[in-house]
């Protein structure tokens, strides 16, 4: 298959790049862009918080991914608690 070499990060970056941008305007001149501090986005793989953040997505071949969902900061904070203001990406694999 042509996408076997792709990782989950590359797919999200290409198809849903806005998921990787936080809504903070502190680091940008254009508030519509949001900052690109990906380190603030929480990553959950099969329900487990990945402490390495978005780097965890680079180690996840797209061939193993069943579903990828995004939660905005408000919803992620309501479900998972404080420190989720930048949102969360939830990945379900076939592992």
How would you describe this structure in keywords?
about 100 residues; single chain; globular; alpha+beta; four-stranded mixed sheet
Folded structure, characterized:
- The protein has 95 residues and is an alpha+beta fold.
- Mean pLDDT is 84; it is low at 25-34.
- 21% of the residues lie in helices and 20% in strands.
- The protein has a four-stranded mixed beta sheet with strand order 2-1-4-3.
Largest beta-sheet characterization: 4 strands, mixed
Beta-strand portion reads 15-25%
Helix coverage percent of residues? 10-25%
Radius of gyration: 13 Å
Calculate the terminal CA-CA distance, rounded to whole Å. 19 Å
Write the layout of secondary structure elements.
Elements lengths: L7 H8 L26 E4 L2 E2 L5 H4 L6 E7 L1 H8 L7 E6 L2
Entry summary:
The protein has helices at 8-15, 55-58, 73-80; strands spanning 42-45, 48-49, 65-71, 88-93.
């Amino acid at each position: 298959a042509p996408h076997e070499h792709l990782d989950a990060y590359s797919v999200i970056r290409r198809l849903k790049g806005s998921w990787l941008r936080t809504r903070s305007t502190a680091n940008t001149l254009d508030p519509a862009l949001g900052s690109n501090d990906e380190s603030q986005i929480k990553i959950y793989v099969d329900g487990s918080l990945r402490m390495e953040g978005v780097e965890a997505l680079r180690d996840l071949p797209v061939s193993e991914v069943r579903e990828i969902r995004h939660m905005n900061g408000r919803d992620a904070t309501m479900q998972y608690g404080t420190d989720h203001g930048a949102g969360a990406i939830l990945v379900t694999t076939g592992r």
